[in-house]
Protein 1
Amino acid sequence: MFIYFLIFFAKIIEVSLATVRTVLITRGEKFFGSIIGFFEVLIWLYLITTVLIGISEEPFKIVAYALGFSCGNYIGCILEDKLALGLITLNIIVSVKDGPTLARTLRAENIGVTIMDAEGLKEAKKMLILHVKRKRKSKVLKLITNTNINAVISLVDTKTIYGGYGIRK
């Protein structure tokens, strides 16, 4: 029975590491991604040999492995969300009169804002562009919401930013 729990929990750890490694590499953190990959493969090699040896006599090893894989994906996504690695770009579309007000509010919180003229279906708009660390996403969205300004907000993952204001590596 112990072997099933070992397979299950080891697979959760391995898949969670794989999720974080993938995110790190796609965000340009090759060194840390490679280090995590080393430990991920060590766990995988141990697991696969443990599962395959005696698989005919103990088919529940397959079930423990598959359940660990499923749970590992879920936990890996939660872990990645909590780590909030990287940067995001927020595109905020507001009315012409609300644009400068919202920009002042955000700048007062030390958030760099670029404001541009935009054109909506029926009227002129302002578009605010912000680049922020993902860890600050909730705070920035709450700040925008608390202004009671009617805004359309889109968020995009951003790999690299050169220059600008308010983001330090």
Protein 2
Amino acid sequence: MNWLKQLNLLRPRPTSFALCLVVAALFMTAMATPSAAAPAKDTQLAGKHCTVVVEPVKSGETASRVTSQTCSDAGTAAVSRSGRTLLMTWYEHAGYGGDSTDVYGDYGPCDADGYVLSTGLWRYSISSFITYNSCDGQQAVLNDGQSAVYYYGFGTPNVGARANDNIGWFKVWDAL
């Protein structure tokens, strides 16, 4: 104890105490004030949105050829919808949440032949999807290239454990 007294560490110092209170108050204020750099809540919910435009499968090819792709950080990515038909929307999370991509066809709605859609960079991200314009039959081929899961209807809020974040490509067609 004597050595502490010699260093004056046991004697309270009013300036040190006051300084600690000011620093603590500033810290608490900084923690309670939202950062100016933080994005607005609705922007965080919007996520990244992309659009892809494809052609039907041509003879000798295994997938529909992508003719354009655009992405934006919030809202809907711009795409000329003239002559294009919305086929499918992929979602990052179950329940149609998170980032999304709209897939458009250059040659109208699904027919019996349909479209074959490579998921590209989305192959490890799809957890739910919606189809449109007569694309009520869907075959999701898993990343192993052999296993497939079939869906019917237009909305799939959860692709299931086997296909979740594991879809290499889709075939979509008019099943009716």
